[in-house]
Amino acid sequence: MTAARALLRSWLPPVVAALIMFAGWEALLAVLNPDGFVLPPPSRIGSAVAENFETIATATGITGFIIVTGLIAGVVAGAAAAVLVTAFRSANETITPLAVAVNAVPIIALAPIFNAWFGILSPRSNQAVVVVLVFFPVFINTTRGLGQPEPSQVELMESYGAGKWRIMREVRIPNAMPYFFTALKLATSLAVIAAIVAEYFGGRQDALGNVITNSAGLTRYDDAWAAVLAGSLVGIGLYAIAAVLERLIMPWYFAARKAA
Questions:
Q1: How confident is the model at residue 39 (pLDDT cuts 50, 70, 90)?
Q2: For 107-129, how does the pLDDT look when each residue is reduced to its tens digit (9 = 90+)?
Q3: Among 31, 124, 141, 145, which residue has the least CB neighbours within 10 Å?
């Protein structure tokens, strides 16, 4: 019963806030009734979802595959690079400046380049954009966590004769987990943004990015916002999965926070 109440307390405020926001949105547009306004009320967006459910579901599946595969690859690459730069000074001097330089390049510059490399209709080009955008926050946050363990813990392990990799496994990685999951939750949103923006420059015509641009170009704003809603739900779902994994993998962290 206590767990149910805690869950209710955590979920009730955002749900109520969302309901108030959507009700206010609907009421404001009903009162103003703007002519040709590009932001339709929630009721019309919901109707567009129902009318074009099959199209939106197909587009969500196509873009969702790009998002999930690119997210996984980017997270794995970012975490692995963080371990390398923490363990080896030469890797730090090589990977960190390169990661900063690549992160400074905007998506609109990367997408056409990857389309030229992998093909404009290949999913690999859009997956590569997602990987690049996801990589940097995971790499930076995880590196920070790996590099900031308690000095006393490292000294204790060294006094027992523990090697570099044992210290990495038993001290540095547990210390980095909160940083990693913070980056992972941020990366879920970045992956959605990267995939949809990349689809503006190439990819299948029935993906979410192209559904949005084509619908907006034909002034079918209800359909465009229905596709935007689908992308948002993918991002929310991935964020929720990351939050659940964080709770499952780090129960000690939340127990310590609660005790404090």
A1: confident
A2: 888 888 898 899 888 889 999 99
A3: 31
